[in-house]
Structures are given as structure tokens and as C-alpha cells.
Amino acid sequence: MHLGLALPFGDIGGDGKIVREFAELAEAEGYDGLTLADHVLGGNPKNPASGRAGGLGLFHDPFVAFGFIAACTKKVELSTQVLILAQRQTVLVAKQAASLDVLSGGRFRFGVGVGWNELEFVGLNENFHNRGKRSEEQVQVMKALWADPYVTFDGKWHHLPDAGINPRPPSRKIPLWFGGHMDVTLQRIAKWGDGWMMLSEPPGPKAVAEFDKLRRLVEAEGRDPASVGLEVWTSTGTGTEKDWREELIFWKKAGVTHVTLHNTFGGYHHKRMAGRSMTDHVDAMRRYRNAVADLL
């Protein structure tokens, strides 16, 4: 199994020295991947209209941060979890992703989602209400630009007149994973995706049923379900080493291919860890990997 680690810059800070130190430590400890979330704007919490969008957490631009981290590390994978695709210009994102993949030596795994924060779409002058359908066309445009030197595309939202990007990914594709939990998300993965980042379900029958649903959809598209990866998040915020091992064993039996230790996420059933210092996070990542290393 692939073991990733979410970068906790909102806790430990995000200046260049800290980013370098934590990324190098994670790689030295044996983590296979580093992940970053994506938010461009946060609303003023004093403004009631901000709602869930209130507050300014520390979120580096993933392409900039991963470009820096790529130069600090040698082999660790770099993954967005997730980049909000529909609030960005498609061709520009394809170019940024390709550049990162080239500069990192093919280490980029591209997780995308549709987002929930309408405030960001307004600020970036993009339509929040058609973001799902528009993202489907975005995926097709990006995959074409990565594969071919020149692309002609005439869609509902995108029109390319025999043009291309340079550089392109060395393998002419970038692993494209989707976050989200609606049936339409699974349908998109079945058509275009290389994997699913599933956060909503704890270990149990419902999670297994969702995985099986995705596999059936992948088969219906004429693809091999084994070619589509499955990722879950975990945390040291609850349980002991014994509990962490039992959870990983369950996910492994369920066919999960990627597990990411995310110690700062508190959504759905996930619990963030109590500590917020660099020492707390380094200790947590060491404890977790030492506990499960023989199961990977």
C-alpha cells in the first residue's frame, strides 16, 4: 500500500524553511507521498454572509508549493487532495500540472474536485452552479493536451483551434484522481479517472459497498476495475497503535491502494490530532508509520 502524509502547514506554518524541513523529514521517515489541499479565498468570519467560507486558513498554492518541494525531495509523490478544478482556467491548469510533472520527474498525482465554497468561484469569476458538468469537459481537455502536441476541441465551454502546450508530461498523461461522494463522481471516475479519494465513510460495510459500486461502473465502461485506485484518510487523533493497524488491515482487505495520514482534518468521521506544533506532527507521523510499516 502507498502511505501518504498531508502537509499540516495550517498548524506548523508555511515559510520556506518549515516547508523544506517537514517535507524532507517525511521522505526520510519513509512516506511515499505528500499531499496538499487547495483553497484560494476565505471569507471574513466577522461577516455572517461568509458562512462555511469564513476564516483564512493557510493554504499554499499547490503548484507553487509542490514546485518548491520537488526540489527539496528526491522520490516522494506529490498529490493535490483536491484541487478545485472548475474555479480555474482549464488550459492554464493543464500547463501548470504538466510543468510540475516534468520538474518533479513524473512524481505528480492530480486529485481534483468540484469544491463547495461559492465565495471562491465568485472571486475567481467562475460559475459555481455549473461546476460539475463543466469539470467533466475540463478533464477531457486536459487529458488531450497532455497526450497530443496539438489539440482541436470544440465543446460547450472550451474551444481549442489546433493548439497545444509545451512541456507535456513525460508519460503523456498524469494520474487523475477524483474526490467527492455523489454517484455522479463515481461515474466520472469510471469514465476518466485513475482513482477515487474517498473520505466520507469509516471502515465498514457501507465503504465496501461504495467501492463495489465504483468497480461495477468501471466495468460498465469497459475498463479493468483493478486499474482504478482507492484512497482513504486516517489520523492519529483517535485510537492507539493497535487500532491504527486494525483499520489499515480492514482497508487493505477492502482493496484500498492508498492511505494518507491526515492529522488536521475534522470532517465526516475523521478527528484531528490535538497537538499543533512541529514536534507534535513529527512525533505523530513517526508513531503511525512505525505502527503500520510491516502491513504496507
TrEMBL record:
TM regions (residue ranges): none
Oxidoreductase as UniProt keyword: yes
Gene3D superfamilies in UniProt: Luciferase-like domain
InterPro entries documented for this protein: Lucif-like_OxRdtase_Rv2161c, Luciferase-like_dom, Luciferase-like_sf, SsuD_RutA_monooxygenase
Domain Luciferase-like: from-to ranges: 19-255
Swiss-Prot/TrEMBL keywords: Flavoprotein, FMN, Monooxygenase, Oxidoreductase
PANTHER family named in the record: ALKANESULFONATE MONOOXYGENASE, ALKANESULFONATE MONOOXYGENASE-RELATED
NCBIfam families, sorted: F420_Rv2161c
Protein name: LLM class F420-dependent oxidoreductase
